[in-house]
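We were asked to recover a plausible sequence for a given structure. The inputs and outputs are reproduced exactly as logged, with field labels preserved.

PROBLEM: sequence recovery
POSITIONS: 260
GIVEN STRUCTURE:
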């Protein structure tokens, strides 16, 4: 497995699910890791668990990624503790309830885009400012996208737009900063068993959901992308020999569902 010895990594939305798996993979590979989440109870659980194995190599912060001041504090605290920043993984995200535009409230639209798109913009902005203060060392930003980044009819309007925007942010960032030694890669993930689906407990727009299901082969548990595999791939993408050639890539990582 790729070594991340001595690197400092920030992973957002990392007190559970995919974000925690990614953070754990970097810790196991020797990195210092700062994680944030909005759920204090989940953060406390992570802190208790990791303190047994990783001592002073991790930092937890309750952070709303749509709050610019909070994001800046996260970056500042990570640098103050570990001395630098090398990698940012934008994993924080929320799902909608499959609402089409005509049924999506302004409140839900704003919430989804604030977390899924404004958040990665703010963390990217803060991380790049820090990267530019340091000696170039192959810094990497990994954005966790979705099949909805490239397929317009796989989720509700708000989630689809947020993830399509994240793909565009990835490519734009890669284009401008690549020759400065700052690389940006997107992962377009398929269905996973993560806490992002907590939103479904609030109910689904069943007509939209059923139309989407009817437009493709059915999703089933064996088609789920293992979160541990995603975590390993994130680690791989930060390798100094891989990151430059992967710059600007938006990698479909979806267990071929929906079928290519």
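RECOVERED SEQUENCE:
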């Amino acid at each position: 497995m790729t070594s991340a010895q001595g690197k400092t990594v920030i992973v957002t939305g990392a007190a559970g699910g995919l974000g925690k798996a990614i953070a754990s993979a970097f810790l196991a590979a020797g990195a210092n890791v700062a994680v944030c989440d909005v759920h204090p109870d989940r953060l406390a659980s992570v802190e208790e668990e990791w303190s047994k194995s990783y001592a002073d190599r991790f930092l937890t912060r309750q952070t709303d990624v749509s709050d610019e001041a909070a994001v800046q504090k996260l970056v500042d605290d990570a640098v103050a503790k570990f001395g630098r920043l090398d990698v940012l993984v934008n994993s924080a995200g929320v799902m909608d309830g499959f609402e089409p535009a005509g049924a999506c409230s302004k409140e839900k639209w704003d919430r989804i885009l604030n977390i899924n798109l404004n958040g990665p913009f703010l963390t990217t902005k803060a991380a790049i400012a820090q990267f530019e203060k340091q000696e170039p060392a192959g810094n990497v930003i990994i954005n966790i996208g979705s099949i909805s980044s490239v397929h317009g009819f796989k989720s509700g309007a708000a989630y689809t737009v947020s993830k399509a925007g994240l793909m565009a942010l990835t490519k734009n960032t890669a284009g401008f900063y690549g020759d400065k030694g700052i690389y940006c890669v997107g992962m377009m993930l398929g269905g996973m068993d993560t806490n992002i689906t907590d939103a479904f407990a609030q109910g689904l727009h069943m007509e939209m959901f059923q139309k989407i299901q009817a437009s493709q082969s059915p999703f089933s548990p064996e088609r789920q992308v293992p979160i541990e595999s995603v975590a390993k791939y994130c680690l791989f993408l930060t390798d100094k020999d891989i990151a430059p050639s992967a710059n600007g890539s938006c990698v479909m990582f979806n267990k071929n569902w929906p079928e290519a």
